UniProtKB/TrEMBL annotation:
This is Arginine--tRNA ligase. Monomer. It is an enzyme of class 6 (ligase). Residues 436-547 form the DALR anticodon binding domain. Pfam families: Arg_tRNA_synt_N, DALR_1, tRNA-synt_1d. HAMAP family: Arg_tRNA_synth. The keyword Aminoacyl-tRNA synthetase applies. Gene3D superfamilies: Arginyl tRNA synthetase N-terminal domain (3.30.1360.70), HUPs (3.40.50.620), Isoleucyl-tRNA Synthetase, Domain 1 (1.10.730.10). It catalyses: tRNA(Arg) + L-arginine + ATP = L-arginyl-tRNA(Arg) + AMP + diphosphate. Belongs to the class-I aminoacyl-tRNA synthetase family. GO terms for molecular function: arginine-tRNA ligase activity; ATP binding. A motif ('HIGH' region) lies at residues 118-128. GO terms for cellular component: cytoplasm. The gene is argS. It comes from Actinoplanes awajinensis subsp. mycoplanecinus.
Length: 547
């Protein structure tokens, strides 16, 4: 039961009657009562009245019968206390519901989430971590809420880099059977040759044409590169515990046949302008540092297509073919302007109609202890597989190491940077993944010792009440995380729940209590375990029965 929402709905008419216009009740959980509203304080200056006087009038007008008691406190706060019987009944209903009192959405959307997006023939590195973890948590959460989620792993698998790499493989004898580490080294060698060898540069460019024209040898080597890379990506995803699968791969190559048609449509609508031989769109409102209009290059001067063209074609496909209602792009913050320009052009072209939303969900960087981008001691980019190896080696169990990495990423606002600190992440106390896993394992251990099941919940002790109210806050936390694409709201809730359970466990003996009290407290423990399990699943963090 969403008490914040219910209390807000009941307080709103009283506040409007006092203020003469709609007022946000701003109901929040409070240490001074179950919930509290500070709305009267915000109205004091506007109405020219003392906030306690306003609060008293609102309290007198509010119809909270059967829901809560209301009192005025301090300078003019409204303290709201839920009735004991209603609290117990709410817990009973939540416990009886497989979905913990969270109904599936009544208005499901088809949501396409673009996340992870590594490059073929290159090892995944720490820079791919945030997109993969954040995107997967959002995909899980939105899907659990009843939306039709389409996961898209937009691979970099086309263009000049692959002309270089295929030509280099031809020079090496034409074999495509190599490990991902071999391919990474080959790519580096091919790039070095491309930059220094005129003959190789010419051959690589011709190889791009051959690849795009369907030359059998070029296509065969390219397809082997893609297949080997996809097997490697899937192995990393399996280790990381994310839900991306083989059907979710959608490389840039998928859209190549659409690009000439896309350019023709944009030209016909007058949305492209030639600039230094390139065809560019100039969406309104985007300017560079010099104040000049900022171009979105759709077709380059040499006739090739860049990221903008592929991203536009992807939107056209995701809306027109996949039928998306909402597009989410989990891509680093530096790409914000690029995506805003792409969305603006797509809207102008009619590929993003009014009923469809497109959002760039940017995120910050992972920093080292020195406050700079996380690197190896030699200054190289950290390979993702090596990071996972170290997490497993440092932790008491693989699930704890992986969970620690994921929770460290998801527990802070995605827009901010965070410092990668092994000791803090793996600590069993504090706001960490292992703390949640230990809390869940402690409850499972409690039931193994109890030998009896839970019973109806009654709430009498303050620690029981605090835990009960926290349990009933699952739905608002979950909907806030999904609605605002902010997984840290769910992560923070789960930490609060684990803390509330820890206080309850210390202050309210379970196994030594009288039979009816014991059964009630086991009921609270069981509901806590279920809520932790569900919430951690939605974040992609594995629970352990014992640690």
């Amino acid at each position: 039961m969403n008490f914040e929402s219910l209390l807000s709905d009941r307080l709103a008419p009283a506040l409007e009657a006092v203020a003469g216009h709609p007022v946000d009740p701003a109901v929040r959980a409070s240490p001074h009562a179950d919930f509290q509203s500070g709305a009267p304080l915000a109205l004091a200056r506007e109405l020219g009245r003392a906030p306690r006087e306003i609060a008293a009038e609102v309290a007198a007008r509010a119809d909270l019968a059967g829901l809560a008691e209301i009192t005025v406190s301090g300078p003019g706060f409204l303290n709201l206390t839920i009735g004991d019987d209603l609290l117990a009944e709410s817990l009973r209903l939540t416990g009886a519901d497989q979905r913990l009192g969270v109904p599936a959405t009544a208005a499901p959307e088809r949501i396409v989430i673009d996340y992870s997006g590594p490059n073929v023939a290159k090892e995944m590195h720490v820079g791919h971590l945030r997109s993969t973890i954040i995107g997967d948590a959002l995909a899980r959460t939105l899907e659990w809420l009843g939306h039709d989620v389409v996961r898209v792993n937009h691979l970099g698998d086309w263009g000049t880099p692959f002309g270089m790499l295929v030509e280099h493989l031809v020079d090496l004898g034409g074999s495509g059977d190599h490990s991902i580490r071999d391919l990474t080294a080959f790519y580096q060698d091919a790039r070095a040759k491309f930059d220094t060898d005129d003959d190789f540069r010419t051959r690589a460019r011709l190889r791009v044409v051959a690849l795009q024209s369907g030359d059998p040898l070029s296509r065969d080597l390219w397809q082997r590169l893609v297949a080997q890379s996809e097997r490697y990506f899937l192995d990393v995803y399996q280790r990381l515990g994310v839900t991306l699968g083989p059907d979710d791969f959608a490389g840039e190559s998928r859209y190549q046949d659409d690009l000439p048609v896309l350019v023709a449509e944009l030209l016909a609508q007058g949305l492209l302008t030639e600039s230094d031989g390139a065809l560019c769109a100039f969406p309104d409102g985007f300017t560079g540092r010099d104040g000049d209009a900022l171009p979105l290059i759709v077709r380059k001067a040499d006739g090739g297509f860049g990221y903008a063209a592929t991203d536009l074609a992807a939107i056209r496909h995701r809306v027109g073919t996949l039928g998306a209602d909402r597009l989410l792009y989990v891509v680093g913050a530096p790409q914000r302007t690029h995506f805003e320009m792409v969305f603006a052009v797509a809207r102008k072209a009619g590929w993003l109609p009014g009923g469809v939303t497109a959002e760039h969900l940017g995120f910050g960087s992972i920093l080292g202890a020195d406050g700079k981008m996380l690197k190896t001691r030699a200054g190289d980019t950290i390979k993702l597989a090596e990071l996972l190896d170290e997490a497993v080696a440092r932790a008491t169990a693989p699930a704890i190491g992986i969970g620690a990495i994921k929770y460290a990423d998801l527990s802070g606002d995605r827009r901010g940077d965070y410092v990668f600190d092994w000791d803090r992440m793996l600590a069993s106390t504090g706001n960490t993944g292992p703390y949640l896993q230990y809390a869940y394992a402690r409850i499972r251990s409690l039931f193994r010792k109890a030998g009896t099941g839970p019973g109806p919940v009654t709430v009498t002790e303050p620690a029981e009440r605090a835990l009960a109210l926290t349990l009933l806050g699952f739905e608002p936390a979950l909907r806030a995380a999904a609605g605002q694409a902010e997984p840290h709201r769910l992560a923070g809730y789960l930490h609060d729940l684990a803390v509330a359970f820890s206080v309850f466990y210390e202050r309210c003996p379970v196994l030594r209590a009288a039979d009816d009290v014991r059964a009630s407290r086991l009921g609270l423990a069981e509901l806590t375990a279920r809520t932790l399990h569900t919430g951690m699943f939605l974040l992609g963090i594995e629970t352990l029965e014992e640690i």
